[in-house]
Protein backbone atom coordinates (compact mmCIF):
# COMPACT_ATOMS: atom_id res chain seq x y z
CA UNK A 1 0.00 0.00 0.00
CA UNK A 2 1.46 3.26 -1.12
CA UNK A 3 0.46 6.87 -1.49
CA UNK A 4 1.94 8.28 -4.69
CA UNK A 5 2.81 11.92 -5.22
CA UNK A 6 4.32 13.79 -8.12
CA UNK A 7 5.53 17.28 -7.20
CA UNK A 8 6.43 19.50 -10.14
CA UNK A 9 7.67 16.49 -12.08
CA UNK A 10 9.23 17.55 -15.37
CA UNK A 11 11.05 15.67 -18.12
CA UNK A 12 12.99 17.36 -20.89
CA UNK A 13 14.54 15.12 -23.53
CA UNK A 14 17.64 16.59 -25.16
CA UNK A 15 19.28 19.85 -24.24
CA UNK A 16 16.86 22.10 -22.31
CA UNK A 17 18.87 25.15 -23.48
CA UNK A 18 18.57 24.29 -27.17
CA UNK A 19 16.10 22.02 -28.90
CA UNK A 20 14.95 19.98 -25.91
CA UNK A 21 11.50 18.39 -25.93
CA UNK A 22 9.44 19.09 -22.81
CA UNK A 23 7.67 15.73 -22.56
CA UNK A 24 6.26 16.30 -19.07
CA UNK A 25 5.75 19.79 -17.68
CA UNK A 26 5.58 20.41 -13.90
CA UNK A 27 3.12 17.69 -13.07
CA UNK A 28 1.45 17.77 -9.64
CA UNK A 29 -0.57 14.65 -8.92
CA UNK A 30 -1.43 12.94 -5.67
CA UNK A 31 -2.87 9.42 -5.51
CA UNK A 32 -4.22 8.07 -2.19
CA UNK A 33 -3.33 4.59 -0.97
CA UNK A 34 -5.01 1.86 -3.00
CA UNK A 35 -6.45 4.25 -5.60
CA UNK A 36 -6.52 3.64 -9.33
CA UNK A 37 -5.08 6.60 -11.25
CA UNK A 38 -5.49 6.75 -15.02
CA UNK A 39 -3.19 8.97 -17.08
CA UNK A 40 -5.26 9.93 -20.11
CA UNK A 41 -4.41 11.98 -23.17
CA UNK A 42 -3.58 11.88 -26.87
CA UNK A 43 -0.53 10.19 -28.29
CA UNK A 44 2.68 12.04 -27.41
CA UNK A 45 1.22 13.96 -24.43
CA UNK A 46 3.72 12.43 -21.96
CA UNK A 47 1.81 9.53 -20.40
CA UNK A 48 4.48 6.85 -20.87
CA UNK A 49 7.25 9.20 -19.77
CA UNK A 50 5.31 10.00 -16.58
CA UNK A 51 4.76 6.30 -15.87
CA UNK A 52 8.44 5.53 -16.48
CA UNK A 53 9.45 8.25 -14.02
CA UNK A 54 7.14 6.71 -11.41
CA UNK A 55 8.71 3.31 -12.08
CA UNK A 56 12.28 4.61 -12.01
CA UNK A 57 13.01 3.85 -15.67
CA UNK A 58 13.44 7.54 -16.44
CA UNK A 59 14.99 10.29 -14.30
CA UNK A 60 12.95 13.48 -13.88
CA UNK A 61 14.69 16.65 -15.09
CA UNK A 62 13.03 18.46 -12.19
CA UNK A 63 10.55 17.74 -9.44
CA UNK A 64 10.03 14.87 -7.03
CA UNK A 65 8.41 11.46 -7.15
CA UNK A 66 7.31 10.38 -3.66
CA UNK A 67 6.09 7.08 -2.29
CA UNK A 68 4.37 7.53 1.09
CA UNK A 69 5.96 10.95 1.42
CA UNK A 70 9.51 9.74 0.78
CA UNK A 71 11.34 11.04 -2.29
CA UNK A 72 12.34 8.07 -4.49
CA UNK A 73 14.07 9.96 -7.32
CA UNK A 74 17.37 8.26 -6.47
CA UNK A 75 15.91 4.80 -5.83
CA UNK A 76 16.65 2.41 -8.71
CA UNK A 77 13.74 0.81 -10.58
CA UNK A 78 14.40 -2.67 -9.17
CA UNK A 79 14.31 -1.33 -5.61
CA UNK A 80 11.03 0.57 -5.96
CA UNK A 81 8.97 -2.62 -5.67
CA UNK A 82 6.60 -1.70 -8.48
CA UNK A 83 5.24 -4.17 -11.03
CA UNK A 84 4.78 -3.06 -14.62
CA UNK A 85 2.50 -4.42 -17.31
CA UNK A 86 3.02 -3.33 -20.90
CA UNK A 87 1.01 -3.71 -24.08
CA UNK A 88 3.43 -6.23 -25.57
CA UNK A 89 3.05 -8.59 -22.56
CA UNK A 90 6.84 -9.14 -22.34
CA UNK A 91 6.60 -12.84 -21.39
CA UNK A 92 9.60 -15.17 -21.62
CA UNK A 93 8.83 -17.25 -24.76
CA UNK A 94 10.94 -20.29 -23.78
CA UNK A 95 9.33 -20.65 -20.33
CA UNK A 96 5.98 -22.22 -19.48
CA UNK A 97 3.24 -20.14 -17.90
CA UNK A 98 4.14 -21.69 -14.52
CA UNK A 99 7.79 -20.68 -14.94
CA UNK A 100 6.84 -17.21 -16.17
CA UNK A 101 4.71 -16.69 -13.06
CA UNK A 102 7.23 -18.15 -10.62
CA UNK A 103 10.26 -16.44 -12.12
CA UNK A 104 9.86 -13.15 -10.27
CA UNK A 105 9.51 -14.96 -6.93
CA UNK A 106 12.57 -17.17 -7.47
CA UNK A 107 14.76 -14.34 -8.57
CA UNK A 108 14.02 -12.26 -5.52
CA UNK A 109 15.99 -12.67 -2.34
CA UNK A 110 13.13 -14.15 -0.42
CA UNK A 111 12.74 -17.06 1.93
CA UNK A 112 10.06 -18.83 -0.06
CA UNK A 113 10.54 -22.55 -0.49
CA UNK A 114 9.81 -24.28 -3.80
CA UNK A 115 6.51 -25.54 -2.39
CA UNK A 116 5.49 -22.07 -1.23
CA UNK A 117 6.28 -20.62 -4.64
CA UNK A 118 4.23 -23.37 -6.26
CA UNK A 119 1.30 -22.59 -3.95
CA UNK A 120 1.45 -18.92 -4.76
CA UNK A 121 1.63 -19.64 -8.52
CA UNK A 122 -1.47 -21.84 -8.22
CA UNK A 123 -3.30 -19.20 -6.19
CA UNK A 124 -2.63 -16.48 -8.78
CA UNK A 125 -3.45 -18.82 -11.68
CA UNK A 126 -6.80 -19.55 -10.05
CA UNK A 127 -7.48 -15.88 -9.50
CA UNK A 128 -6.93 -15.23 -13.20
CA UNK A 129 -8.50 -18.50 -14.37
CA UNK A 130 -5.41 -19.72 -16.17
CA UNK A 131 -4.84 -22.95 -14.16
CA UNK A 132 -5.35 -25.04 -17.31
CA UNK A 133 -2.57 -23.17 -19.10
CA UNK A 134 0.24 -23.57 -16.56
CA UNK A 135 2.21 -26.03 -18.69
CA UNK A 136 1.80 -24.12 -21.95
CA UNK A 137 4.33 -21.73 -23.46
CA UNK A 138 3.30 -18.16 -24.41
CA UNK A 139 3.37 -19.03 -28.13
CA UNK A 140 0.50 -21.46 -27.54
CA UNK A 141 -1.74 -18.83 -25.93
CA UNK A 142 -4.18 -16.28 -27.35
CA UNK A 143 -3.53 -12.57 -26.86
CA UNK A 144 -6.01 -12.40 -23.99
CA UNK A 145 -4.44 -15.41 -22.25
CA UNK A 146 -0.96 -13.93 -22.63
CA UNK A 147 -2.17 -10.69 -21.10
CA UNK A 148 -3.63 -12.63 -18.16
CA UNK A 149 -0.23 -14.25 -17.59
CA UNK A 150 1.41 -10.82 -17.75
CA UNK A 151 -1.06 -9.59 -15.11
CA UNK A 152 -0.39 -12.69 -13.02
CA UNK A 153 3.31 -12.00 -13.12
CA UNK A 154 2.64 -8.48 -11.86
CA UNK A 155 0.41 -9.43 -8.94
CA UNK A 156 2.30 -12.52 -7.78
CA UNK A 157 4.83 -10.49 -5.84
CA UNK A 158 2.25 -8.23 -4.19
CA UNK A 159 4.21 -5.11 -5.13
CA UNK A 160 3.56 -1.74 -3.54
CA UNK A 161 2.32 -0.34 -6.85
CA UNK A 162 1.10 -1.47 -10.28
CA UNK A 163 2.05 0.46 -13.39
CA UNK A 164 0.17 -0.31 -16.60
CA UNK A 165 1.12 1.14 -20.00
CA UNK A 166 -1.76 0.63 -22.47
CA UNK A 167 -1.95 -3.04 -21.40
CA UNK A 168 -5.00 -3.74 -23.56
CA UNK A 169 -3.91 -1.96 -26.73
CA UNK A 170 -3.09 -5.18 -28.58
CA UNK A 171 -6.35 -6.94 -27.81
CA UNK A 172 -9.51 -6.83 -29.94
CA UNK A 173 -12.36 -4.55 -28.85
CA UNK A 174 -14.48 -7.23 -27.18
CA UNK A 175 -11.61 -8.70 -25.18
CA UNK A 176 -10.45 -5.23 -24.21
CA UNK A 177 -13.76 -4.63 -22.45
CA UNK A 178 -13.66 -7.96 -20.62
CA UNK A 179 -10.04 -7.50 -19.55
CA UNK A 180 -10.53 -3.96 -18.31
CA UNK A 181 -13.32 -5.15 -16.05
CA UNK A 182 -11.04 -7.91 -14.79
CA UNK A 183 -8.19 -5.49 -14.12
CA UNK A 184 -10.64 -3.27 -12.26
CA UNK A 185 -11.89 -6.17 -10.12
CA UNK A 186 -8.42 -7.52 -9.53
CA UNK A 187 -7.10 -4.15 -8.42
CA UNK A 188 -9.99 -3.61 -6.00
CA UNK A 189 -9.43 -7.09 -4.63
CA UNK A 190 -5.71 -6.71 -3.97
CA UNK A 191 -6.13 -2.99 -3.17
CA UNK A 192 -2.76 -1.91 -4.55
CA UNK A 193 -2.16 1.67 -5.75
CA UNK A 194 -2.13 1.71 -9.53
CA UNK A 195 -1.22 4.08 -12.35
CA UNK A 196 -2.65 3.14 -15.73
CA UNK A 197 -1.86 4.79 -19.06
CA UNK A 198 -4.36 4.93 -21.90
CA UNK A 199 -5.41 7.22 -24.75
CA UNK A 200 -8.89 5.67 -24.66
CA UNK A 201 -11.29 7.90 -22.73
CA UNK A 202 -13.96 5.21 -22.42
CA UNK A 203 -11.42 2.83 -20.86
CA UNK A 204 -10.29 5.58 -18.51
CA UNK A 205 -13.83 6.46 -17.46
CA UNK A 206 -14.76 2.89 -16.62
CA UNK A 207 -11.64 1.88 -14.72
CA UNK A 208 -10.37 4.98 -12.88
CA UNK A 209 -10.84 6.32 -9.37
CA UNK A 210 -9.03 9.47 -10.52
CA UNK A 211 -8.20 10.56 -14.06
CA UNK A 212 -5.27 12.85 -14.84
CA UNK A 213 -5.84 14.35 -18.27
CA UNK A 214 -2.66 15.47 -20.02
CA UNK A 215 -2.02 17.54 -23.11
CA UNK A 216 1.45 18.60 -24.30
CA UNK A 217 2.90 17.29 -21.05
CA UNK A 218 0.68 19.52 -18.92
CA UNK A 219 -2.01 18.47 -16.51
CA UNK A 220 -5.39 19.70 -17.75
CA UNK A 221 -7.50 18.30 -14.93
CA UNK A 222 -7.26 15.76 -12.13
CA UNK A 223 -10.61 14.42 -11.00
CA UNK A 224 -13.00 11.52 -10.72
CA UNK A 225 -14.61 10.25 -13.94
CA UNK A 226 -17.76 12.04 -12.86
CA UNK A 227 -15.92 15.34 -12.32
CA UNK A 228 -14.04 15.36 -15.61
CA UNK A 229 -17.25 14.51 -17.47
CA UNK A 230 -19.66 16.84 -15.67
CA UNK A 231 -17.30 19.66 -14.74
CA UNK A 232 -14.61 19.73 -17.42
CA UNK A 233 -11.97 22.33 -16.53
CA UNK A 234 -11.43 23.59 -20.06
CA UNK A 235 -12.28 23.00 -23.69
CA UNK A 236 -9.59 20.36 -24.12
CA UNK A 237 -11.05 18.19 -21.36
CA UNK A 238 -14.58 18.87 -22.59
CA UNK A 239 -13.73 17.60 -26.05
CA UNK A 240 -11.47 14.74 -25.01
CA UNK A 241 -13.90 13.17 -22.58
CA UNK A 242 -17.28 11.86 -23.71
CA UNK A 243 -18.43 10.39 -26.97
CA UNK A 244 -19.54 11.68 -29.42
CA UNK A 245 -17.51 14.87 -28.86
CA UNK A 246 -19.08 17.87 -27.17
CA UNK A 247 -20.45 20.52 -29.55
CA UNK A 248 -18.62 23.86 -29.11
CA UNK A 249 -19.62 27.18 -30.60
CA UNK A 250 -18.16 30.69 -30.45
CA UNK A 251 -20.15 33.21 -28.50
CA UNK A 252 -19.83 36.52 -26.68
CA UNK A 253 -21.02 37.37 -23.21
CA UNK A 254 -22.74 40.65 -22.39
CA UNK A 255 -23.70 42.03 -19.04
CA UNK A 256 -27.39 42.87 -18.83
CA UNK A 257 -28.28 44.27 -15.44
CA UNK A 258 -27.95 41.41 -12.98
CA UNK A 259 -27.70 38.75 -15.65
CA UNK A 260 -25.16 37.81 -18.28
CA UNK A 261 -26.45 37.10 -21.73
CA UNK A 262 -24.71 34.75 -24.16
CA UNK A 263 -25.00 35.75 -27.80
CA UNK A 264 -24.23 33.28 -30.55
CA UNK A 265 -25.04 33.41 -34.24
CA UNK A 266 -27.89 30.99 -33.66
CA UNK A 267 -29.44 31.87 -30.34
CA UNK A 268 -29.07 34.04 -27.28
CA UNK A 269 -29.85 33.13 -23.71
CA UNK A 270 -29.05 34.10 -20.13
CA UNK A 271 -26.12 32.32 -18.52
CA UNK A 272 -27.59 29.52 -16.42
CA UNK A 273 -27.33 30.14 -12.69
CA UNK A 274 -24.74 27.40 -12.07
CA UNK A 275 -22.35 28.93 -14.65
CA UNK A 276 -22.37 32.51 -13.41
CA UNK A 277 -19.09 31.95 -11.54
CA UNK A 278 -17.25 30.41 -14.51
CA UNK A 279 -13.88 32.12 -14.79
CA UNK A 280 -13.70 33.78 -18.14
CA UNK A 281 -10.94 36.21 -18.97
CA UNK A 282 -12.52 37.89 -21.97
CA UNK A 283 -16.01 38.25 -23.35
CA UNK A 284 -15.13 35.66 -26.00
CA UNK A 285 -16.46 32.30 -24.88
CA UNK A 286 -17.26 28.87 -26.17
CA UNK A 287 -20.70 27.49 -25.55
CA UNK A 288 -20.78 23.71 -25.27
CA UNK A 289 -23.36 21.01 -25.16
CA UNK A 290 -23.06 17.27 -25.27
CA UNK A 291 -24.81 15.39 -28.09
CA UNK A 292 -26.66 13.30 -25.47
CA UNK A 293 -28.13 16.44 -23.88
CA UNK A 294 -29.77 17.73 -27.05
CA UNK A 295 -33.34 16.68 -27.65
CA UNK A 296 -35.97 17.21 -30.31
CA UNK A 297 -37.90 20.43 -29.73
CA UNK A 298 -41.16 19.07 -30.99
CA UNK A 299 -43.67 16.36 -30.42
CA UNK A 300 -45.91 15.69 -27.50
CA UNK A 301 -44.88 16.27 -23.88
CA UNK A 302 -41.92 18.48 -24.80
CA UNK A 303 -41.37 21.41 -22.53
CA UNK A 304 -38.73 23.63 -24.02
CA UNK A 305 -36.80 25.55 -21.37
CA UNK A 306 -33.55 26.43 -23.13
CA UNK A 307 -32.25 27.67 -26.48
CA UNK A 308 -33.86 26.11 -29.52
CA UNK A 309 -32.45 25.92 -33.04
CA UNK A 310 -32.87 24.04 -36.28
CA UNK A 311 -30.40 21.60 -37.79
CA UNK A 312 -30.52 20.33 -41.35
CA UNK A 313 -29.78 16.63 -41.11
CA UNK A 314 -26.72 15.40 -43.01
CA UNK A 315 -26.23 11.86 -41.66
CA UNK A 316 -28.13 9.58 -39.29
CA UNK A 317 -26.10 6.84 -37.56
CA UNK A 318 -28.35 4.47 -35.62
CA UNK A 319 -26.84 3.04 -32.41
CA UNK A 320 -29.40 0.69 -30.92
CA UNK A 321 -32.39 2.62 -29.60
CA UNK A 322 -30.75 5.98 -30.33
CA UNK A 323 -29.07 7.63 -33.29
CA UNK A 324 -26.15 10.00 -33.68
CA UNK A 325 -27.37 12.72 -36.01
CA UNK A 326 -24.95 15.12 -37.72
CA UNK A 327 -26.42 18.29 -39.11
CA UNK A 328 -25.83 21.90 -40.12
CA UNK A 329 -27.26 24.61 -37.95
CA UNK A 330 -26.82 28.34 -37.71
CA UNK A 331 -24.27 27.47 -34.97
CA UNK A 332 -22.34 25.43 -37.55
CA UNK A 333 -21.85 21.64 -37.46
CA UNK A 334 -23.86 20.04 -34.72
CA UNK A 335 -24.04 16.47 -33.43
CA UNK A 336 -27.03 15.18 -31.47
CA UNK A 337 -27.62 11.79 -29.91
CA UNK A 338 -31.35 11.29 -29.76
CA UNK A 339 -34.08 8.69 -29.58
CA UNK A 340 -37.19 8.64 -31.76
CA UNK A 341 -35.17 8.98 -34.94
CA UNK A 342 -37.07 6.58 -37.18
CA UNK A 343 -39.08 9.26 -38.93
CA UNK A 344 -35.99 11.39 -39.63
CA UNK A 345 -34.34 11.59 -43.05
CA UNK A 346 -31.27 13.28 -44.44
CA UNK A 347 -32.07 16.77 -45.69
CA UNK A 348 -34.94 17.24 -43.25
CA UNK A 349 -35.08 20.01 -40.69
CA UNK A 350 -34.67 18.91 -37.08
CA UNK A 351 -35.61 21.36 -34.33
CA UNK A 352 -33.31 20.84 -31.35
CA UNK A 353 -33.24 22.19 -27.83
CA UNK A 354 -30.81 22.11 -24.92
CA UNK A 355 -31.83 22.38 -21.29
CA UNK A 356 -30.01 25.23 -19.46
CA UNK A 357 -28.59 22.84 -16.86
CA UNK A 358 -26.68 21.05 -19.63
CA UNK A 359 -25.00 24.07 -21.15
CA UNK A 360 -21.25 24.54 -20.65
CA UNK A 361 -19.19 27.67 -21.00
CA UNK A 362 -15.44 27.86 -21.58
CA UNK A 363 -12.94 30.62 -21.96
CA UNK A 364 -12.19 30.74 -25.68
CA UNK A 365 -8.53 31.59 -24.96
CA UNK A 366 -7.60 28.43 -23.06
P1 LIG B 1 2.61 9.17 -24.74
O1 LIG B 1 2.93 7.95 -23.95
O2 LIG B 1 1.58 10.04 -24.10
O3 LIG B 1 2.22 8.85 -26.16
P2 LIG B 1 5.43 9.81 -24.44
O4 LIG B 1 5.60 9.97 -22.99
O5 LIG B 1 5.87 8.54 -25.04
O6 LIG B 1 3.92 10.10 -24.84
O7 LIG B 1 6.19 10.98 -25.19
C1 LIG B 1 6.03 12.36 -24.84
C2 LIG B 1 6.94 13.20 -25.72
O8 LIG B 1 8.29 12.94 -25.42
C3 LIG B 1 6.79 12.95 -27.21
O9 LIG B 1 6.96 14.16 -27.88
C4 LIG B 1 7.93 12.01 -27.51
O10 LIG B 1 8.32 12.10 -28.85
C5 LIG B 1 8.99 12.48 -26.56
N1 LIG B 1 9.90 11.39 -26.15
C6 LIG B 1 9.54 10.28 -25.46
N2 LIG B 1 10.61 9.51 -25.19
C7 LIG B 1 11.68 10.14 -25.71
C8 LIG B 1 13.09 9.87 -25.78
N3 LIG B 1 13.60 8.77 -25.21
N4 LIG B 1 13.87 10.75 -26.40
C9 LIG B 1 13.37 11.88 -26.96
N5 LIG B 1 12.07 12.21 -26.94
C10 LIG B 1 11.23 11.37 -26.34
MG1 LIG C 1 2.80 5.91 -24.51
TrEMBL record:
Family matches, as SUPFAM superfamilies: MOP-like (SSF50331), P-loop containing nucleoside triphosphate hydrolases (SSF52540)
A single GO BP: carbohydrate transport
Protein name: ABC-type D-xylose/L-arabinose transporter
Lineage: Archaea, Methanobacteriati, Methanobacteriota, Stenosarchaea group, Halobacteria
EC number: 7.5.2.13
Species in which this protein is naturally found: Natrinema salifodinae
Cellular component, GO, one term: ATP-binding cassette (ABC) transporter complex, substrate-binding subunit-containing
One family name in Pfam for this protein: ABC_tran
Major subcellular location class: membrane
Amino acid sequence: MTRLELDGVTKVFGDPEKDGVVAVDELDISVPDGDFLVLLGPSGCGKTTTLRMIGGLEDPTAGEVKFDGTVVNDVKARNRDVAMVFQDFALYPHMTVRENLGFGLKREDNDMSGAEIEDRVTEVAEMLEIEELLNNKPGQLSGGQQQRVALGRAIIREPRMFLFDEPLANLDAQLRKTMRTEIDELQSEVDITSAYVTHNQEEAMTIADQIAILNHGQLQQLGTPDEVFNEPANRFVAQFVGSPNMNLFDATVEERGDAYRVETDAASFDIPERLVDTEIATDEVLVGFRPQDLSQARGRNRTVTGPTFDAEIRVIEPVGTEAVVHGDSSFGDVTAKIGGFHDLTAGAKLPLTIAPEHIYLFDAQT
